[in-house]
Design a protein that fits this description.
The chain has 99 residues and is α+β, with helices and mostly antiparallel strands. 19% of the residues lie in helices and 29% in strands.
């Protein structure tokens, strides 16, 4: 196991979790994480898509309100974040703390 953080997946904010997840599922040929498929037992406000090996690739997080981006202007930026896993909280907290 590496001592560096590992990118888990990219998380996209959306007001339509299922709709946006379905769009990207079809676009990339991904699958839903077990339980996240339509009718599954997963959370309706958080869905994860996986690649053929089962590795998580994209996640979708429901937000109540989302201003449409004004890109390339900077008034309203694009909305997403990255999730990481870490081997130990202590090591990572000391080595990678953002000011």
């Amino acid at each position: 196991m590496t001592e560096y953080p590992r990118l888990l997946h990219t998380v996209i904010d959306t007001t339509d979790v299922r709709g946006l997840a379905e769009f990207y599922r079809e676009l990339f040929g991904y699958s839903y994480r077990p339980g996240d498929e339509p009718g599954g037992t997963g959370f309706l406000d958080w869905l994860v898509l996986t690649d053929d090996s089962g590795a998580p690739r994209l996640a979708f997080q429901e937000v109540e309100r989302l201003e449409p981006t004004t890109w390339p202007d900077h008034d309203v930026p694009m909305q997403l974040h990255l999730d990481f896993t870490v081997p130990t909280r202590v090591r990572t907290g000391r080595a990678f703390r953002y000011p």
